[in-house]
Amino acid sequence: MKMRDVLLGALIGAGAAMVATSMTTCKKSAIPPEKALKSVKEAVKNSYAVKGSWIHMKTDSINKFDVPFTVYSGGLTCEKEGRLEQMDFMVDANTGTIVELQKQ
Question: Is the domain of 71 the same as that of 87?
Answer without folding.
Answer: yes
